[in-house]
Design a protein that fits this description.
The chain is of the alpha/beta class. It has two domains: about 5-140 and about 335-345, Nucleotidyltransferase, domain 5, CATH 3.30.420.40; about 160-330, ATPase, nucleotide binding domain (Nucleotidyltransferase, domain 5, 2-Layer Sandwich). The chain has 13 helices and eleven strands. α10 crosses α11 and α11 crosses α12 (about 310-320). It is globular. The relative contact order is 0.14. It is found in: Cytoplasm. This is Probable butyrate kinase. InterPro entries: Aliphatic_acid_kin_short-chain, Aliphatic_acid_kinase_CS, ATPase_NBD, Butyrate_kin. Keywords: ATP-binding, Cytoplasm, Kinase, Nucleotide-binding, Transferase.
Length: about 375
């Protein structure tokens, strides 16, 4: 009989922390522990939220009679440390400090994941790991180059869900992820469209930097001339907000609530229909560009993310891209499962956790 391993997964979001407890592959519970946004606003930085969030999490554990004594693994969502190759990493002091300092340039609530794991690890023990943080960098060299000397493209995407979905799809084909070429798309509040070649994510839009299709909250790619003209008299705060919070659907409708906007589409609202379909149209264009990166050798187009709950998203992508490769949809996301199953592979000795190198996986061309 297989040994039973207990694994706690911690995934901080902007106003909540998603907690999951697994026994081997079985999820015992998943809960979004909400944090009062009016309280969060009082903290100058995301790092300053740590103690408050832990108080709320501790109360949740106590109220639910959840005893973490003897837990085998604690997995913290990775944040903005220096860029790394994909995989599972031990959480150590250097990783924690670099994440707190946002060394990878990503300032996001996910940076609290390894910190919260560390707090609980000191109390309950177990191994402590992170897996496929948003700054996974496996770009091919040509994907890094821009038209300005010294400015290079970054890799910031929904790596955790993208790689887990790709791994699952490969298994469904009776293959290994490392033997396949996929175009994998995370389509939700943020949109990542990535080319996976033999287990490496060699290209994709910089979703964290606002590149790619516009989304429910992000303005997406625009011509530089349009950007300079529009932002000429805007503050830096306004620019950042349009890139990550108030752009995209939010800019058109004053809300990023996709259900609210899609209801307008269902009711025949012409503006809502036009903008909604334009968002899908831009996703389709980026999928096409990733097919050329893979030279047309694509084993599958794999879709994941929350917006797939609207059937026409998959339908329109299938209509336009089905000639490239078979289109398969995995609605929702697998972040909690990805982290838990990664920890399980380490506990079972099937995979070894890497040591965080403390420097970017790529830091410029040498010639």
């Amino acid at each position: 009989m297989d040994k039973i391993y207990r694994i706690l997964v911690i995934n901080p979001g902007s106003t909540s922390t998603k907690l999951s407890m697994f026994e081997n592959e079985t999820c015992l519970f998943t809960e979004d522990v909400f944090h009062d946004s009016s309280v969060l606003k009082k903290f100058p930085t995301i790092n300053d939220q740590l103690d408050y969030r832990m108080e709320v999490v501790d109360k949740f554990l106590k109220d639910g009679n959840i005893d973490l004594t003897g837990v085998d693994a604690i997995v913290g969502r990775g944040g903005g440390c220096y860029s790394v190759e994909g995989g599972i990493y031990k959480i150590d002091d250097r990783l924690i400090q670099d994440t707190k300092a946002a060394k990878g340039g990503l300032y996001h609530s996910s940076m609290l994941g390894v910190q919260m794991a560390d707090v609980l690890h000191k109390k309950y023990g177990g191994i402590m790991i992170m897996m496929n943080p948003p700054i996974v960098d496996e770009l091919c060299d040509l994907a890094r180059v821009t038209g300005v000397d010294g400015v290079y493209r970054r890799a910031v995407c929904h790596a955790l869900n993208l790689k887990e979905t790709a791994r699952r799809h490969a298994i469904s084909l009776g293959k290994k992820y490392e033997d396949c070429n996929f175009i994998v798309c995370h389509i939700d509040g943020g949109i990542s469209i990535t080319a996976h070649k033999k287990g490496k994510m060699i290209d994709g839009n910089d979703a964290g930097g606002g590149e790619g299709p516009f989304t429910p909250t992000r303005m997406g790619t625009m011509a530089v001339t349009d950007i300079t003209r529009y932002f000429w008299d805007k503050t830096q705060a306004e620019m950042k907000s349009l890139c990550s919070q108030t752009g995209g659907l939010s800019s058109y409708f004053g809300t990023s609530n996709s259900d609210t906007i899609h209801k307008k589409v269902e009711e025949g609202d012409r503006k809502a229909t036009r903008v909604w379909n334009a968002m899908i149209y831009q996703v389709i264009k980026y999928i096409g560009s990733m097919s050329t990166v893979l030279q047309g050798k694509v084993d599958g187009i794999v879709l994941t993310g929350g917006l797939l709950r609207f059937p026409e998203v998959e339908e329109k992508i299938r209509e336009s891209c089905g000639w490239i490769a078979p289109v398969t949809s995995y609605p929702g996301e697998f972040e909690q499962e990805a982290m838990a199953f990664g920890a399980l592979r380490v506990l079972r000795g099937e995979e070894e956790a890497k040591i965080y190198p403390g420097k970017p996986v790529w830091d410029g061309f040498k010639d």
